Amino acid sequence: MKKIYRLILPIVALSLSSCSLFTKEYDDSNATVVKVTTKISDVYNKVKDSCVGIYCTSLSSSTASIGSGVIFKKDNNAYYVLTNYHVLDEYLDSDYSKFYVYQGSNSQRFKATVTSALDKQKDLAVLKMTPDKDIKTISISKDYHPIVTPGEEVVAIGCPISLDYFNSVCKGVVSKAEYTATNNGGELNVIQNTCPINPGNSGGGLFNLNGDLIGINFKKTTYVNDGGTKVLVDGVDYAIALSEVITFLDINSLI
After folding, report:
1. Is 145 part of the annotated catalytic residue set?
2. Which of 82, 111, 165, 251 has its CA 20 to 30 A from that of 100?
3. Residue pLDDT, tens place only, 176-191
4. Which residue among the candidates 168, 202, 212, 243 is catalytic per the annotation?
5. For residue 48, which of 71, 66, 77, 81 has the smallest C-alpha distance?
6. Which residue is catalytic, options 50, 58, 68, 86?
7. What fold, for 7-47+139-251?
């Protein structure tokens, strides 16, 4: 089976200095100050059961791709998984596509369906699954907005490259607090950080040291040099901010 790992949408710029998408500062006057833990392992143990891998495949095109996600809601026997739109995009219009969610220490696989909560411009999407066991969910509230500050440590959890690296943990720092950037012809609130994000990490959670979800990883920076070669930039990565996620989920009546 041919595998396509097309999960990170690049920023194409003429130079490193032109990669900035800054337009306006985010107003954090209503944000919440929280006491944080100090160990990365504490964060991982708190959220690991809610962090998942996503596998998409199409029988018609014999292709497959992977991504990451977070389980954020339970409703009766159904669980809802937040991920990036571009993780699912290639498979949305095919009657022969299948979607699977991998969860837990033994990477148990569950069949999932795509919900109507899809937004290409915001690069957010929701899957639904009905596992035969209880699963812990990530808490997302319309009234809870943790403060994100430059220099604070953050943790990304996801499946870089392949499901062999299911729920890999990496850490970095916030480079820029929440601000508005352009994406797919629109605007969304993002957090720039230094967590090493790779294909497969898309849709996974970005957490502070209290284990609070503060964003959804979705983009790694690239630029085109003078020779026309696309260059990957390390340590300039982006997550969709929690405020944007909350708005998306609220519009779709999921919180």
Report:
1. no
2. 251
3. 999 999 888 889 999 9
4. 202
5. 71
6. 86
7. Thrombin, subunit H (2.40.10)
